Amino acid sequence: MVRVAVTGMGTVCALGSTVAECWAQLSFGKPGFSPLTVPGVPPYKFSLAAVATRYVPLEHFSEKETSMLERFAQFAAVAAREAMKQSGLELTTELKEQTAIITGTSVGGQFAEEEGYVRLFRDNVPRVAPLTIPRTMSNAGASRISFEFGIVGPTYTISTACSSSNHAIGQAFGMVRRGEVLAAIAGGSEAVFAEGLMRAWEAMRVVSPDTCRPFSLQRRGLILGEGGAMLVLENWDHAKARGARILGEICGFGMSSDAHHITQPTPEGPLRAIRMALADAKISPEAVDYVNAHGTGTTVNDSTECEAIRRAFGSHAERLLVSSTKSMHGHTLGAAGAIEAVTSLLALQHGLVPPTANFIDPDPACALDVVPNEPRQANIETAISNSFAFGGLNAVLVLRRIS
């Protein structure tokens, strides 16, 4: 087993189109929510969304490429470019064979499907666009990254709803640690603002009609978001030998299934994943300083997660700093874990915990230090990042600061 270094990070979301832009917002506790530009007919029961408004496709791709690549795949490629540039990794022929690409997405290409359905069932046009399948396929982001960098190692996509990119990073971490590859690009991406998908989320009654207030007594649900993030993971000795700047370390991963209910969480599954992650990292609960929570802002999720944290950490839970950055970048579904892994690494680097924004009154069911509204300076060395998905699928990463 070898140590796994993070040598590159890239992200695009409602907070910005680079890691620096996103951190500037996160570190001041500024949400990236904006009114829906298309309110729907009839109007949606929610009015805010976390849209990547600074992202301009034609600044990154040709017009022909944008017609072939769904928005979620564009996010994946742009985040990978930033991460690879920061890493300084020079892909020799040999290294291209020893690098993996593992991405996560929950819904893949929704816009191409929707366009096809409109043609077929509203416009009565029997022929859909010829690139509908390659635009729709969930592995389009992973494949694009492979094409751009000439990487020919293991390349695939994981879809486990809102845990997708944490599972992807965890799988990549395992491959690097076991010596199966020397490096990996791992993360996730999502683009959710197709009308059919928005109507589906509206029907679930979990989207907030005002804003996202994780752990607050007044919370009313999540705010949908879009975006993507990628990490470059690397064999520690390989990174050191080439003089790379190491941004942080992934040192543990745990995953579990609730085996309980398709949408209603239970604390036992998340608890099991947290304990497995800590055991995998060979650290005690007391070694953890910060928890980047799944923290969707829904009533049941937040209280369930807090119970799992209390049970996992015991009396140490009183000293943990816990925040949900979904209160700023929204719930990006399959991309959430990747965006939050980048956020957690930045928090460790800067000694600054991004807050849980939009907080009003504490909920007794969420009685933890949730860093309400204001960022917190703190000497944090180790963090966990939680992702818990519909279907009861849980994935937890352990991340460590490099002094």
SSE diagram, text form:
Elements: E1 4-13, H1 19-26, E2 34-35, E3 48-49, H2 63-68, H3 71-87, H4 93-97, E4 99-104, H5 110-122, H6 132-136, H7 140-149, E5 155-158, H8 164-177, E6 183-190, H9 195-204, E7 227-235, H10 236-241, E8 248-257, H11 268-281, E9 290-292, H12 299-313, E10 321-323, H13 326-329, H14 336-350, E11 352-353, E12 376-377, E13 382-389, E14 393-400
Parallel strand pairs: 4-5, 4-6, 9-10, 9-13
Antiparallel strand pairs: 1-7, 1-8, 2-3, 6-7, 8-14, 11-12, 13-14
Helix pairs in contact: 3-7, 8-14, 11-12
Strand order of the largest sheet: 5-4-6-7-1-8-14-13-9-10
The name of the CATH architecture of the largest domain is: 3-Layer(aba) Sandwich
CA radius of gyration is: 20 Å
CATH superfamily of the largest domain: Thiolase/Chalcone synthase
Shape: globular
Percentage of residues in strands = 15-25%
**Number of self-contained structural domains:** 2
Mean pLDDT: 97
